[in-house]
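Give me structure tokens for this 114-residue protein.
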Amino acid sequence: MDNTIERPAVEHYRYSVEWSATDGEFVATIAEFPSLSWLAATQIDALRGLEYVVTSVIDDMLESGEEVPEPLADRTYSGRVNLRVDPAIHRKLAAEALRHGTSLNAYAARLLDQ
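Here you go.
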């Protein structure tokens, strides 16, 4: 049995770079590692700095045998979402779906897609 852990592609992760008025710099963040960020004077430098940190963190995680988060872009989804709501909301959605001549699932999916 092969126990080799595959290294995820760092560029497949979901990065975001935005201006931080508080810091007076751009801050890069990453969805799969919410505790990591990087500040820099330019958007590109913020992204490059965070990619460097993420690479180092992944190296450390692999070395210690920790599970590395899979990039959102590489994950597969079943399309199934289980959602619990108040019974009154359930009733209202079911009535609206009926009024639109569709199933509750189709109606909810349309609302979620908006």
